[in-house]
Amino acid sequence: MRLTSFLKAFLGCTMLVLASCSTTRYVPEDRTLLNSVSVKTLGDYPQVNTATLRNYVRQQPNARWFSIVRLPLHTYSLSGADTTKWFNRTLRAIGEPPVLFDTLKAELSRSDLRQQLRNEGFLNAEVVYETRRHGKKTDITYWLQPGQPYFIHNIRYQIDDPQVAQVLGDDSLRRLLHEGMRFDVNRLDAERKRITALLADSGYYRFHKEFITYQADTIGMSNLVNLTLHLSLFRQNNRPDTLHTRYLIRHISYASSTPSPNSSDAGETENRIRLRHHVLEECTHLVEGQPYSATGLRNTYNHFGRLQAVRYTNIQLNPVRDSLQELPLLDCDIQIQTNKPSTLSFQPEGTNTAGDLGAAASLTYQNRNLFRGSEVLSVELRGAYEAIRGLEGYSNQDFTEYSLEGRLQFPRFIAPSFLVPLSSLNSFNATSEVSLLYDLQDRPEFHRRVLSAAWRYRWEQPQRHSHFQLDLIDINYVFMPWISDTFKKEYLESETSRNAILRYNYEDLFITKLGFGYSYANGPVALKTNIETSGNLLQLGSSIFGAEKYYPSGRGDQEKGVYRLFNIAFAQYVKADFDITRSFAIDQSNQVVLHLGFGIAYPYGNSSVLPFEKRYFAGGANSVRGWSVRSLGPGKFKERDGRINFINQTGDMKLDLNAEYRTHLFWKLDGAAFVDAGNVWTLRQYEIQPGGKFSFKDFPKQLAVGYGLGVRLNMGYFILRFDLGMKAINPAYEEDEDEHYPILHPRFSRDYAFHFAVGLPF
């Protein structure tokens, strides 16, 4: 309560200081502060997007926190006039000077708005602005008078080059312009770009969009336009107009621009490239004897740029004449500068797990060109130590971990014969990866060994902002060579605290995963989906070959028996995840971001419990931030034993609903106000998780809700995030209404959670 009172007093004093400081302190006597800007239409014009048109206003008022308080301007106004003092310079550096109303910029904004409306088809549009002055502040409103939009009545194509006319005629179905559409300069420009790209991919190396012009003629007193697209002949200097030239690729050569380390002349270069010739050909998307393609040139740059062995690529196209060829030719010279093939790095780190301090270090070797095909081999050796406190009944109080991981990545598809069709995806920036990991963990309670092997593919379509991943093989073998007698007695064998989920996750287990993931990110929208399954082929094979089932003693949750591989049970489940984020810009300093995350997994067949690594948890920096990590759910389950809640408070289904208002504060600081809702549930009834099973009837009452404020330190290349969350609605309560609705009866010591993280939550 003392902390709550302190925060209230601090915020009150801060607001009092800011309120006492005039925002017009540094506004000259003959000028005014630009207080607000509005863009409105005179009349009902649903086709006109005033929010987008606001971007054409050249003067915007000072930024406001959450669109309410001009804290950056207040901060600047707190500074003194003497800029030789450090304190005053600091306030001005992190603050924002007043935006002074400028009539010239207002007139230019009016002109820009009118021009943009005309570009959108409102050819008779007019814009006026109105100013209202109160004291030393000015409000300005831009009134849009669009008038009636104009539409295309007829389109005529005037192509002076007959060969170009034939190419465009064969592609007529892809035209972006059609009769009856609104006259829109943006669509006209898009058609110019489309035609330019088409011709540039058809061999017209020197063609650019300035060869394409439009002529628009209005028809009488109507709002119709006759449009003519004119594609002119090639013009160069004072020479007569000629037909556009179509080029063929004659010869493609490769050269290294990497300085030779053995050469006394720093400018001398090696004559050979440390890449196999067929790798160079795979990355080259220009073809000898075929027309020049701008897309092929761009893809060549992209594919060489993806090679870890390549530092820099330069492609020169040289026109040549050959008397035996009817068409002009281009020679393609590809110069490549390579990276050092091998690197060795060492990275120390500190750890803090629930107050237990420790240290870790990793040593990584990387070879970027293992087989002279830009294959990347990385081998990482990692060690960690942590001093664990507060454990009674255990002989050892330390945690140690050692791991060895190897990864081999190919910048192309490497596939067996039955996956040959996947090789066609090489044009989509494809990679193949094989990995192997051995992890050794020794804790006071148990020893754990993990052996993992994976074979996966990744590819992307940059033009469609899409990324794909296929986990063809992902095998995890979890081996528990030793479990302490104390841990067995208290958790695994105790009749009073029998925990099926805990027991299942402290036994030897095989997880054989097959998965597929897709992600999309473009502007304000980001989407991620993933589906995976495990154990189906092993289950099918066990059934076909009549394998014998194993019946664990004392395992009431698995009385039906399980199949085993090498005397080890294997997990069987299906899991799907869906995550979408959508942001809405209010202005340059404020935006609202909405997020939905949903995941569901179901164990079946050989499993009645999900492996711990596949179960969902709620709370934490990226979930419902009124709760600390793994402290919410499932359902209305209320924690009983803090020592094993890390596994009791997990589920088979998760829902996250988040809304966050983000604003720029000053300097490199951003702020946020958020509301989160969500929980996890189980799909089966487990005795140790009463109230955790999902039901449509109880679902609304079991949604936890939290709210809070956050501060972000945005350094550009990374973001440090500090969020303070408070509980609003807590589904895990007994009969205390204060605990059920903390938003009505807040208690800071009970209801808060503080989070520190790197990066945004979604």
Task: Give the helix/strand layout.
Elements: H1 2-20, E1 33-41, H2 50-53, H3 71-78, H4 86-94, H5 103-119, E2 126-134, E3 137-145, E4 151-159, H6 162-170, H7 185-200, E5 212-218, E6 224-231, E7 248-256, H8 277-283, H9 294-306, E8 310-320, E9 329-338, E10 342-353, E11 356-367, E12 376-387, E13 398-410, E14 431-442, E15 446-461, E16 466-483, H10 485-492, H11 500-504, E17 509-522, E18 525-534, H12 536-544, E19 564-565, E20 568-569, E21 573-585, E22 590-603, H13 645-648, E23 653-666, E24 669-681, E25 704-714, E26 719-729, H14 737-740, H15 748-751, E27 752-758
Parallel strand pairs: 1-3, 4-6, 7-9
Antiparallel strand pairs: 2-3, 5-6, 8-9, 10-11, 11-12, 12-13, 13-14, 14-15, 15-16, 16-17, 17-18, 18-21, 19-20, 21-22, 22-23, 23-24, 24-25, 25-26, 26-27
Helix pairs in contact: 3-4
Give the structure's gist in a few sentences.
With 762 residues, this protein is an alpha+beta fold.
What would your notes on this structure say?
This protein is an alpha+beta fold and 762 residues long. The protein contains 15 helices and 27 strands. It starts with a helix and ends with a strand. About 2% of the residues have low confidence.
